Amino acid sequence: MDDRKVLQHIDQLVQEEHELIKGGPDKAARLKDVSEQLDQCWDLLRQRRAKREFGEDPDTAKVRDKGTVEGYQG
């Protein structure tokens, strides 16, 4: 997946996230899932950009599991 496709997916998830926020508390589970997917996409994009910056193949970047991405301390 190239950067453009990752960014398009991020845009779609952000739109869905905004709709879910308007939808109220009954949408909480889906909202959590969308939020986690967004974190994974942003992580993937950061990996791709870092690999490119350091002369590596950005296509070797992999989507990390939700537990890894959500567990970041920063």
Oligomer category: single chain
What is the N-to-C succession of helices and strands?
HHH
| Radius of gyration using CA atoms only | 14 Å
Please identify the structural class as seen in this structure: mainly alpha
DSSP strand tally? 0
Structural write-up:
This protein is mainly α and 74 residues long. The radius of gyration is 14 Å and the shape is elongated. α1 runs antiparallel to α2 (28-53). The chain has helices at residues 3-23, 28-53, 66-70. The chain has one domain (3-65). It has three helices and no strands.
From the structure above, extract its key features.
single chain, 74 residues, mainly alpha, 0% strand
What can be said about this structure in brief?
By secondary structure, the protein is mainly alpha-helical.
